[in-house]
Structures are given as C-alpha cells and as structure tokens.
C-alpha cells in the first residue's frame, strides 16, 4: 500500500518534469483496495486478540466474570446480529456487482467486484469470530461457576 502511494507520487512528479502522464487510476484505486483489505480483513483477527477499541471507563476494574458477561452480551446482541444484517444487506450488492462484472467509473480503474467480495467475506469472518468468542465466554462462565 505504501509502495503504491510512493510510486504514484514519484511518477506524478516525474511525469510533470517530463511533460507526460505517468500515473494511473489503477495505482490510486489499488491503494484504497489494499487499505480496505487491511481494514476489513483484520477485524476478525483484532476481535480474536481482544484488540478492538473500547471505552474503558469501568471495564478494566471489573472481575473476569463480569467482563465475560459484558462481552457475551455485546457479542450476542450487537456484533452477531449486526454481522448477520451486514451479510444480508451486502449480499445482493456483491452478487449484482459480479453479474455485471462491475468496473471503476474512472478510466484505467480496477474492477469493483473483487473488493466488494472482500466486504462480504470480512463480515463473514467477523461473524464466525463472534460465534467463537461467544462460545469461549460461555465456556469461561461455566467453568467459573463450577469453581464457585
């Protein structure tokens, strides 16, 4: 991503010097495609490693059981339903993009259907990781209840 950005900037300035257009919309779009992939596909990994941003006014001071309950409620009533809705809402969007082999409106741009597929795939990964985290929290709560 950084390489594409630097290459595009160098070619733009070199092109001005030479009086030629050396850049391409594909470089610009490739840059935001890569950024989108990083942003979208890392969501599930961030959830797995508990790296998502939260407002920790009280959460850090709670017991492990209380944290597990809060996580379980958030996963069950916010994340999982939102991912189900997002998959449902984007499915037709992605299918129609594949049906018409959608491409960029900009000259020399990249096809749009692959990046739209990444969107759907990332929602699916986040949904599956949400299920995994839910099972993990339930297991933790059952074990902590048995120890009490």
Quick take:
The protein has 148 residues and is mostly helical. The chain is 76% helix and 0% strand.
Low-confidence stretches: none
Largest sheet data: none
Give the termini separation: 51 Å
Tally of individual domains: 1
Binned strand content: under 5%
Give the rounded overall mean pLDDT.
91
Count the beta strands: 0
Spell the H/E element sequence: HHHH
Radius of gyration: 22 Å
Shape: elongated
**Percentage of residues in helical conformation:** over 70%
Number of helices: 4
Which structural class best describes the helix and strand composition? mainly alpha
Task: Show the helix and strand layout.
Elements: H1 2-18, H2 25-48, H3 64-99, H4 113-147
Helix pairs in contact: 1-2, 2-4, 3-4
Key traits:
single chain; 148 residues; mainly alpha; 0% strand
How would you describe the overall organization of this protein?
This protein has one domain (2-147). By secondary structure, the chain is mainly α. The chain is 76% helix and 0% strand. It is built from 4 helices and no strands.
């Amino acid at each position: 991503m950084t390489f594409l950005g630097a290459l595009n900037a160098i070619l733009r300035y070199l092109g001005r010097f030479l009086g030629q257009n050396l850049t391409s919309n594909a470089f610009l779009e490739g840059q935001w495609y890569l950024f989108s992939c990083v942003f979208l596909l890392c969501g599930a990994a961030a959830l797995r490693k508990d790296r998502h941003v939260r407002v920790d006014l009280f959460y850090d001071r709670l017991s492990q059981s209380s944290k597990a309950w809060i996580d379980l409620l958030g996963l069950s009533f916010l994340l999982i339903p939102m991912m189900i809705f997002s998959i449902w809402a984007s499915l037709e969007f992605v299918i129609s993009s594949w049906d018409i082999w959608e491409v960029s409106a900009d000259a020399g741009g990249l096809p749009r259907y692959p990046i739209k597929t990444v969107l759907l795939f990332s929602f699916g990964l986040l949904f599956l990781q949400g299920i995994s985290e839910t099972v993990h929290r339930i297991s933790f709560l059952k074990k902590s209840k048995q120890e009490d």
